[in-house]
Amino acid sequence: MAQTLASLMPDGDFLALTLANPDGLAPAQFTLADGTEVSIWDTGVICFEPTQPGNKDIVLSCGVHGNETAPIEICAELVQQLLVGTLALKHRLLVLFGNPAAINAGTREISENLNRLFSGHHSMGAGLINAERKRAKALEDYVSRFYDASRVTFSVPRNRYLYDLHTAIRGSRFEKFAVYPFLHDKPWQKAEFEFLQACDVTTVLLMQTPASTFSYYASNSHGADAFTIELGKVQPFGKNDMSRFARAREAIHQLVSRDSVQTTPFDEQQFQLYQVYRAINKQTQEFKLHFADDVQNFTAYPVGTLLATDGDTEYRVEREGEAIIFPNAKVAIGQRAMLMVVPTTVSHNLA
Ligand SMILES: O=C(O)CCC(=O)N[C@@H](CCC(=O)O)C(=O)O
Ligand SMILES: [Zn+2]
């Protein structure tokens, strides 16, 4: 029997369909009134192809961590508007709800941090032993399939994007910020800073090393302009003040529905730019932070301040201006428990 939008999701609520089927969803395909082809590839994986697509191949992801709800709400609403026809699509678009089981559980992860399993890390060590490892591999395959399909269909090079939307565990001095994956010395993109500013994101952390994150995977393996974007602090569904993300929501709508997003020219003075000074990895179960849970990301302490201990090892502030980000004592042993960042500039390597 041919599938229709009405038979699958009468109200266009793909998030509800995903969460009702967290472990998998049979592929389905249907056409919208304006000719846009919609394909459901799996639970939380939906691809839109307009009849005359513009030159962008856009991946939007959310819910890679299940309790980071504001981005899930933004993506669910976007997909719904596209499905019911209140927003017209300009470019090819793949929307991913990363970890449906963790979204249902309201937790960051079920067995393992999904955002540490990309670029093949899902198959290292013990291999594909849990749902998150299998999902990381599947998400890589879906992203490859999405980008590769347009290489076959279109003869001219296209622009690839992946915006992986998250929220931070704790509050931040700069409520919204982005992580720019390591580019292996390729230049940072002015147009991407402009897009981030349109999203009301003017704090950017420039990574200096490869990572096992989704955004680094898209950047490094597919040449996409890719970012992790942190929109505020973790809240349960329904408790987000979505007005604080109105500009991000609007910029994302413009990104998918227009030739170009309305931006202002890049001016470095408008940004707070940081680079990683050092990563502190958890070595033992004794790892302990020496500041309170309500201390915000990007807080700087005087040189010499004790930040964390890990067994006999002490971590103290080494450099003037060094600030904390993503501190989390609960990570698995061997994983990043905190980054220390320092202010930086980009003008010397900007395209
Ligand atoms: O607030 C926190 O400690 C974590 C928020 C979060 O999930 N951040 C991402 C950043 C990914 C990146 O470095 O690009 C993560 O930790 O996976
Ligand atoms: Zn996250």
- Cross-sheet strand order for the largest sheet: 1-2-3-5-4-6-9-7-8-10-15-14
Q: Shape from CA axes?
A: globular
CATH architecture of the largest domain: 3-Layer(aba) Sandwich
Mean pLDDT across all amino acids: 97
Total E-strand runs: 15
Radius of gyration, in Å, reads 20 Å
Protein name: Succinylglutamate desuccinylase
Cofactor: Zn(2+)
Pfam family, one: AstE_AspA_cat
Pathway: Amino-acid degradation; L-arginine degradation via AST pathway; L-glutamate and succinate from L-arginine: step 5/5
Write a structural description:
With 351 residues, this protein is α/β, with parallel strands linked by helices. The chain has two domains: 265 residues, Zn peptidases (Aminopeptidase); 70 residues, OB fold (Dihydrolipoamide Acetyltransferase, E2P), CATH 2.40.50. The protein is built from eight helices and 15 strands. It has a twelve-stranded mixed sheet, sandwiched between helices. Strands 11-12-13 form a three-stranded antiparallel sheet, with no helix packed on it. The radius of gyration is 20 Å and the shape is globular. 39% of the residues are buried. The model has no long low-confidence stretch (mean pLDDT 97). Ligand LFNQLBSZ binds next to strand 6.
